[in-house]
Amino acid sequence: MLSVLDSTMRDGAQHNKISYSVDDKLGIADALYSLGIDYIEYGAPAFDDECALFERRTKIPPSALVAFGMTARKGVDPALDKGIRRLIDCRAETITLVGKADSSQVKSVLGVSCEEYLENITKSVAEITKSGKKVIFDAEHFFDGFLRGDGFAAKALKSAEAGGAFIVTLCDTNGGSLPDTVSAGVRAALNSVKISVGIHTHNDSGLAVANTLEAEESGATHIQGTLLGFGERSGNACLSTLIPLFNRLGKLHTDNLKMLTPASRAVAEISNIAIPDSMPYIGDAAFTHKAGLHADGVLKATNTFEFIPPESVGNVRRLVLSKESGRHLVKAKLSGIIPEADDPDVFAKIFNALKARESEGYSYEAAEASFYLMAARIAGRNVDFFKTIDYSVTDSADASSRAETTIEVAGKRQMAVATGSGPVHALDRAMRKCMIGFFPAMDKVSLVDYKVRVIDPKSATGASVRVSITTTDGKRTWKTIGVSGNVIHASFMALEDSYRFALNDDFNHIFA
User: How many CB atoms lie within 10 A of CB 25?
Assistant: First the structure.
């Protein structure tokens, strides 16, 4: 079976838009451990003083922690090297020790002879292993050295093995290697050492995942990467893709594979990085079906358009409502939410209304809360707990917007005035002031996104617009929509739906 090392907190932190605090690293480590990652690399203690604080605070066992460091400095006995001593004293039971495997870089960058450097590798590894810690030797620029053909790359691996390393990892440091080079390099490494061979690829050619697969196929038994693939330059091998791949191939057994999506999203949130919708396995669109034929097929037999169940990696299936939607998909979306739609007549009214409103410019694929409100209303439910009597907005170039609204609840009217940084902001604030006395729970509801799209650009300034609003109550997040030739009116329609959805207890379990 393969072993997996995640380097998000070290290699991933080299992404130009990422910087981790100790608290960030603690959260990432917990997410990775929940997934069952074998080795969690948290940083370089010799260069980062915060590593000591992380070591004191983390609850991850030392057997899963990996500290990163370098071979002893030029001219310094490893037994006296401060960096080596810090690695020996750290909490982690495993050390990743990096050393160069390209003779050209040893001579030009380090300024030492190849023989001297090979001896340094052996002594540095041995100094750490004799303390009882395990060493993974990361052979930096291995494939460049391998292609140089002078035999130094293989000698570097042998030197690490002689010092007691239990894994030698072949690093495609520049990210330019092709799969055939990776395969040949792994086979050569296996002929040079008797210990396990690992692979560490970068994605500069878009081949990090492919090269890791090729390395494993050629005999590598240890893989390294970052959970979401980000890192320096174009990033690293993406473990959220590789882990389920190797599980499918029977090369890896992850007990907690259902934690893949939750763990990935936790790491993304901490890193302030958005996961692309199309990301394999964990993206929002990974198991989303929009086309009527696809949605109908997956409802009848999930394996028609899904090669694995979404729940196996902690994701969920999404069936998107759109003009391509068939009757089966709409019925599936209503099932368990609007039981009245089981009546053929009620369902026909809802389905026809959906088609009619889409012809007017509504798009429910990204605003399902509005769809459920429409369906519930057609089914005869009371979803309108308040009635808007009137609203008006005043806007000017040199002042904040002002809104005045009046609503009616159970025969009682309430009027409010509010200002805001724009007309929609002012409307939202005025409506909340009206409703808060009737519905105290509205205090927890807030808008998190607002988008406007022109439906028919040919009509220029007279075109209809579609407004989409995203709302949350801290537990759920939902989207609503409004369409009109007047952008303020379209915005108000979406706002009203967002409030009505929040107030309907029948929808509490949706989007949770």
Answer: 25
DSSP run (H or E) holding 481: strand 477-484
Q: Is the pTM of this model over 0.90?
A: no
What pLDDT, on a 0 to 100 scale, did the predictor assign at position 507?
Answer: 83
68: amino acid identity, one letter: F
The backbone torsions φ and ψ at residue 201, rounded to the nearest 5 degrees and listed phi first, read -115, 150
Residue 60 belongs to a domain with what CATH number? Answer: 3.20.20.70
Considering Cα of 286, then 292, then 294, then 295, what sign does the dihedral take?
positive
Task: Report the C-alpha gap between 167 and 419 in whole angstroms.
Answer: 64
Pair 353, 400 in one domain? no
Cα angle: 139, vertex 175, 234; to 5 degrees:
125
Query: Could you identify the residue written with the tokens 């439906």?
Result: 455
d(CA 393, CA 405): 9
Q: Which domain holds residue 211?
A: 3-271
Examine the domain organization and report whether 69 and 208 are in the same domain: yes
Predicted local confidence at residue 363, as pLDDT:
79
**Quick one: which of 348, 370, 413 has its CA closest to 511?**
370
User: Is 132 buried (19+), middle (13-18) or exposed (0-12) by CB count in 10 A?
Assistant: exposed
Could you give the angle at the alpha carbon of 497 between the alpha carbons of 496 and 501, nearest 5°? 120
In total, the chain counts a number of residues equal to 512
Please report the pLDDT score of residue 441 as a whole number: 86
Q: What is the arrangement of strands in the sheet containing 387-396, beginning at the earlier edge strand?
A: 387-396, 399-409, 412-420
The strand ranges marked E within 85-243 are: 94-100, 134-140, 167-172, 196-201, 222-225
258 and 310 in one domain? no
Are 87 and 165 members of one domain?
A: yes
Supply the angle between the helices 260-271 and 239-248 in degrees, to the nearest 10: 170
Neighbours of 17 (CB within 10 A): 8
Count the domains in the chain. 3
Do 308 and 255 reside in the same domain of the chain?
no
Does a structural domain hold residue 381? Answer: no
Stretches where the chain sits below pLDDT 50 are 295, 298-299
Q: Name the residue type at position 172.
A: D
Are residues 121 and 211 both part of a single domain? yes
Query: Is there a single domain that holds both residue 130 and residue 202?
Result: yes
Q: How far apart are CA 93 and CA 87, in angstroms?
A: 10
* β 446-454/465-472 pair status: antiparallel
Q: Is residue 158 in a domain?
A: yes
Q: Identify the sign of the CA torsion 223, 224, 229, 233.
A: negative
- Does residue 392 belong to any structural domain of this protein? yes
Q: What is the pLDDT of residues 246-269, one digit of tens each?
A: 999 999 998 899 999 999 989 998
Q: How many CB atoms lie within 10 A of CB 447?
A: 15
| Helix-helix angle 208-217:179-192, to 10 degrees | 40
Q: Are 342 and 267 in contact (CB under 8 A)?
A: no
Question: Domain for residue 366, yes or no?
Answer: no
Same-domain check for residues 330 and 460:
no
- CB 18: neighbour CB atoms within 10 A? 17
